[in-house]
Amino acid sequence: MKTLLFVTDLAFAERFIDWNNLDWGIQRVDACRTTQGELLLVELEDLNPYLSLLELSEDTRQCFIESMKSSLQKALLD
């Protein structure tokens, strides 16, 4: 049962992730489950400010930053 919930939870979140037009970034999808087991969207947050880039290695951090810059530039130019 847990595997099925994980798959349906992921599919729920991916609907909102697919809706976002950024190629790279951080997106948090918060939801709550009703007593009937359905998911309801609580909050959708792009560019999560709680991400700590300082926890990443220098190479990974720079790669992320460059990918994020490219994605934002592409989104602004489209």
Account of the protein in words:
- With 78 residues, the chain is α+β, with helices and mostly antiparallel strands.
- The chain has one domain.
- 49% of the residues lie in helices and 19% in strands.
- It is built from two helices and two strands; from the N terminus they run αββα.
- It has a two-stranded antiparallel sheet with strand order 1-2.
- A hairpin with a 5-residue loop joins strand 1 and strand 2.
- The chain is elongated, with a radius of gyration of 15 Å.
- The mean pLDDT is 82.
Task: Enumerate the spans where pLDDT stays under 50 for 5 or more consecutive residues.
Answer: none
Alpha carbon gap, first and last residue: 43 Å
> Can you tell me the number of structural domains?
1
Mean pLDDT level: 82
Strand order of the largest sheet: 1-2
Give the helices and strands as they follow along the chain: HEEH
Helix residue percentage: 40-55%
**Quaternary organization:** single chain
Query: If you compute it from the alpha carbons, what radius of gyration comes out, rounded to the nearest whole angstrom?
Result: 15 Å
Instruction: Choose one word for the global shape.
Output: elongated
Broad structural category? alpha+beta
How many helix segments? 2
Question: How much strand content do the residues show?
Answer: 15-25%
Q: What is the strand tally? A: 2
Largest β sheet strand count, sense and barrel closure: 2 strands, antiparallel
